[in-house]
Amino acid sequence: MAKTEKRRKPTRLPAQIERTIDAAEDKKAIDLVVLDLRKAAGFTDFFVIASGANARQVRAIADAVMETIAGGDGAKPAHVEGYDRSEWILIDYFDFIVHVFAPETRAFYSLERLWGNAERIDVASGR
């Protein structure tokens, strides 16, 4: 007997998350993932995780996200970390946190595995 796949209804994402994804995609972010943490964590609702091929691209993705969110509703991040080294830039907007990684750093910290109980949203079909 063949195993049947469960099909999930695509999750509707908040507008700020949609704009974040668009900004990251415009800068050619790779391995873009959204983790829905609403049932898994109390400190934020979503992680948006992306990678850039090098430090310049990591910064470009982070800059594009911050410019896009500020341009949309004027929101500024509560906290930005790691910008100078550009191996892992964390942009905290309270309701969601953006993580932009260099590939090696992302593999080392493996946030997707660490937050394995969170719903992983396929960016292509989840929007």
Number of domains: 1
Oligomer: single chain
**From the helix content, strand content and strand pairing, which structural class follows?**
alpha+beta
Count the strands? 6
- Mean of all residue-level pLDDT scores: 89
Return the string of H and E elements.
HEEHEEEHHE
Give a structural overview.
With 127 residues, the chain is α+β, with helices and mostly antiparallel strands. 33% of the residues lie in helices and 24% in strands. It has a single domain, classed as Beta Polymerase, domain 2. It has helices spanning 15-26, 55-73, 103-109, 111-114; strands at 30-36, 46-51, 79-81, 88-92, 96-101, 119-122. Strand 3 and strand 4 form a beta hairpin. Helix 1 packs antiparallel against helix 2 (55-73).
Question: How are the secondary structure elements laid out?
Answer:
Blueprint: H1 15-26, E1 30-36, E2 46-51, H2 55-73, E3 79-81, E4 88-92, E5 96-101, H3 103-109, H4 111-114, E6 119-122
Parallel strand pairs: 2-5
Antiparallel strand pairs: 1-2, 1-6, 3-4, 4-5
List keywords for this structure.
disordered N terminus; 127 residues; Beta Polymerase, domain 2; alpha+beta
Task: Summarize it.
The chain has 127 residues and is of the alpha+beta class. Helix content is 33%, strand content 24%.
